[in-house]
Structures are given as C-alpha cells and as structure tokens.
Amino acid sequence: MPYLKLNLVAVTTIVMAYMHVSTMKRPSLHFVGGIEGWVTPPEPNYYEKWVKGEKFLKYDTAIFIFDTGSHTLAEVTKEAYDTCNTTNPIYIDTWGPAAVELDTVGVHFYICTMHCKSGQKIIVDVKPRNDTF
Description:
Shape: globular
Order of helices and strands: HEHEEEHEEEE
Number of strands: 8
Radius of gyration: 20 Å
Largest sheet: 5 strands, mixed
Helix content: 25-40%
Strand order of the largest sheet: 2-8-7-4-5
Number of helices: 3
Low-confidence stretches: 1-23
Structural class: alpha/beta
Strand content: 25-35%
Mean pLDDT: 85
C-alpha cells in the first residue's frame, strides 16, 4: 500500500506540474516582415508598421528570411541604426535565413547592411517574460 500512495503522489505532482506548464506562455517565433520576409521594403515604413502588430518577449526568436548574397542581418547601436552606419556591427549574419534568439530584454536595432538607407531596418523592443514556476 505505501508503494501505491507514493505512486499516487508522484502522478498527482506530475499532472499538476504539466497543467501549470501548459498554461504558461511559450516562446514565440516572429517571422520578420511577415509574408514578405527580410527584403527591401515594398512600401515606406513597412517594418515600422509590421512591428506594431508584434509583441516580443524574452526567449522568443526572430526569424529573418532572406536570400544569401541579396541581404544581410546586422545588430547595431541606435546611432548606427539612425545613420545606417555599417562599419562596426554588434553582430552580423550574411547567410539567410537567420534566427535571432531574443534573450536580452531591451531595445535592439537590426539593419540590412546593403539596403538600410532604403528602409530595411527594424527596432525590436524585447519585454520580460512574466512566467513564474
């Protein structure tokens, strides 16, 4: 009988833990630019409009879909973002597609080093994840 009680406690604990985990918000994938992907913007302010419909949380992933050789993805400072300065990026990826794990809360600035002046740049504001265990 003690064995049965131990199993019942273990099963109850596992079920309760699963119920808690299943209600937590899991990290999301964000396909930057939507169906267009990470391209030279088809219209003015394209990425500014797109980002308004997104909520980026810590540990989400931003997916930048682009053709290698046609575009790049660089994380830069705000100053570099504002001026499209490509000389000293924080991070650069020249092979598409690129996946960026958003593991730091705060504002992040991404540009295409080839088409930034054409508007291919985006500001991603990552908020803290409020899940508790």
